[in-house]
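Lab notebook, bench 4. The sequencing result for the construct came back, and we need a structural model before the next group meeting so we can plan mutations. Quick request posted to the team channel:

Model the 3D structure of this chain.
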Amino acid sequence: MKQATSCNQMVEAIQQHVHDEFRVQEHDDLCMIVTPMLYPDNSRICIYFEATDSRHFMLTDHGEASDYAFVNGVPRHVVHDQAVDTIHRFKLLDIGGDELALQMERSEVTQGIFTLTQAIQDISYLVYRRSPVSTP
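Done. Here's the predicted structure in token form:
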């Protein structure tokens, strides 16, 4: 019985931490989830979502992961190639450009957030593999 109490306390602590670390804000016509997961520069990853009908949500990064990699020195064609690969590996929607998007039923939204976050990190971590820039 003592083990069950200890486990329950652990679960409660984890739930409180998750509750404290995820924030939801309105952003234009969408809702934005500010996650505790980070880009390589330690800025928080944001995911935008909207209801597409009474049973489904669309989650997207609005192309921010690809933009992040590009502005941090990764060539656009490398970002695009990685985005195409990531879209297929994570079974995301191909909605054009380098935007990462996922549509799911409301009951699957938590898994969708984690899947999309992993895909965002997959793209943004390209900065660790970029070629060094030489200066004259």
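Helices lie at 2-21, 64-71, 76-89, 109-124.
Will bring this to the meeting.
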